[in-house]
Design a protein that fits this description.
One of its GO terms (biological process) is peptidoglycan catabolic process. The chain has two domains: 146 residues, no CATH class; 227 residues, 3-Layer(aba) Sandwich (Aminopeptidase). The strands form five sheets. Strands 1, 4, 5, 7, 8, 9, 10 and 11 form an eight-stranded mixed beta sheet that branches. A hairpin with a 7-residue loop joins β9 and β10. α6 packs across α9. With 440 residues, the protein is of the alpha/beta class. The chain contains nine helices and 22 strands.
């Protein structure tokens, strides 16, 4: 008979197995957690200033008892205008004369601006460093936190290119803007301004140059401009614009000319006209280049025009530099201040609505958006420019420079021999005014 061994009963040594089982379960848990996080990372919350989420929520959710209501805003050039009341060109807003202070939550910097009625004398965006700003109005010596009368978000504005970079501006007021990420609701629609450095776009421009002439939308034939002393205005203006573009680009500025060829006719009004191109370019500044004529050949000198709704600061800087570095002089015929002879605001003219509030210089008026009541002066302005200009919050700050009187022999001869130098000085002056440094 064969020997059959007895069946041994399997015994589990729990003192050894239990720890191994726990270790196995722990490893499985860790592996599942890692895989889950790799596939479904935690949603990223909105933060500012490289702050943590907690610090961001803490800084942005601060509430104030003393506030000041803002109900309107627009940009002009690189200046942000804020208003207590809805904007009307006819009168000054109650904010004029008050100090508005921007506090950078990221750096602790404070930027005070004394508001003037001029559209280029409020918040200078080119002076702000990147960060998130709370806005205060100093009213009766008391800082009051600015709030807006409705919810809005506007992040379409960018500044001029400087040192290879631009700043993107995000202006907003929304008591619920922290609700999605932090489940926090503010008690009012506080006004914030966020500034972020960004890479400039090749499809956007900083300065647009408009050489006068070679349009036909007002005379129904090509406008060649002044023809005197061997000079033809539309040709001279275009060649000047080409030179000025090159000189400005040496500072890194993005520059566009409204006529891409000397003999290309481009109307002034309409989507396809010079003004339509100016708005599409997103340029913050426009220089309209022209020349003058007179029935009296003794009349001479340059004339630089600015809007009635802007200060003379830009125009005066150009006049000063051109007088200092060239032999150009200002026209003294209409001057009330001989030191700044040649600088003038455009005459105010009456529109079809019976209001005498419109800049007589169409290039200055129609490029300035809401700031200069664009798209309202005439039926042509309303029908051709109204759609893109009338309610445009991003007004272009425009200067019209009439460098000389071609009907004056001395003016004509100096322009002919020194056009390149005059454009170089113009470019240097513009760059200095815009605080733009030359590329190295």
């Amino acid at each position: 008979m064969a020997y059959v061994p007895k069946h041994r009963k399997l015994k589990i040594r729990w003192k050894v197995a239990a720890p191994l089982l726990v270790l196995l379960l722990l490893c499985i848990y860790i592996l599942v957690s890692v895989l889950h996080n790799a596939v479904s990372p935690e949603p990223k919350r909105y933060t500012i200033c490289d702050f943590s989420q907690e610090k961001t929520a803490e800084r942005l959710s601060k509430q104030y008892k003393s506030t000041y209501a803002i109900s309107d805003y627009f940009y002009y050039g690189e200046t942000l205008n804020l208003m207590q009341n809805a904007y009307h060109p006819e009168g000054n807003d109650p904010l004029a004369g008050k100090t508005v202070q921007l506090n950078n939550l990221c750096t602790g910097e404070k930027f005070p601006f004394v508001f003037e009625s001029a559209a280029d004398r409020q918040i200078a965006l080119d002076e702000l460093t990147p960060g998130m700003y709370e806005i205060f109005v100093i009213d009766d010596l008391q800082p009051k936190r600015a709030v807006y009368t409705s919810v809005f978000h506007d992040n379409s504005f960018t500044t001029v290119k400087r040192k290879g970079s631009i700043n993107k501006i995000n202006l907003f007021a929304d008591r619920n803007f922290l609700k999605k990420d932090y489940q926090k609701t503010l008690d009012q629609d506080y006004l914030f301004l966020e500034v972020k450095a960004a890479k400039p776009s090749d499809k956007q421009y900083d300065v647009i140059l408009d050489p006068a002439g070679y349009n036909k939308d007002f005379t129904y034939e090509l406008d060649k401009g002044v023809e005197a002393n061997g000079l033809v205005e539309y040709q001279e203006n275009y060649q000047a614009a080409v030179a000025l573009k090159k000189d400005l680009e040496a500072y890194g500025l993005r520059v566009l000319i409204t006529r891409d060829k000397m003999d290309k006719a481009v109307d002034t009004y309409g989507e396809k006209g010079r003004l339509g191109a100016a708005y599409r370019s997103k340029a913050r500044y426009m220089i309209h280049i022209g020349q003058n004529e007179s029935t009296y050949d003794s009349v001479k000198g340059m004339e630089i025009y600015h809007s009635n709704y802007s200060s003379a600061t830009f125009a005066n800087a150009l006049l000063y530099d051109l007088k200092k570095h060239t032999q150009l002089t200002g026209n003294t015929i209409y001057a009330t201040d001989l030191d700044n002879a040649g600088v003038m605001s455009a005459d105010l003219v009456e529109g079809v609505d019976g209001r005498k509030i419109y800049d007589g210089d169409m290039y200055i008026r129609e490029s300035g958006g809401r700031a200069t009541a664009a798209g309202m002066y005439s039926e042509a302005a309303a029908t051709q420019n109204g759609a893109f200009a009338k309610d445009n919050r991003e007004g272009i700050q425009t200067i019209s420079i009439y460098y000389s009187y071609f009907t004056n022999k001395q003016d004509a001869a100096y322009w002919k021999d020194n056009r390149a130098k005059i454009m170089k000085v113009t470019a240097d002056s513009i760059a200095r005014t815009l605080h733009v440094e030359k590329n190295k």
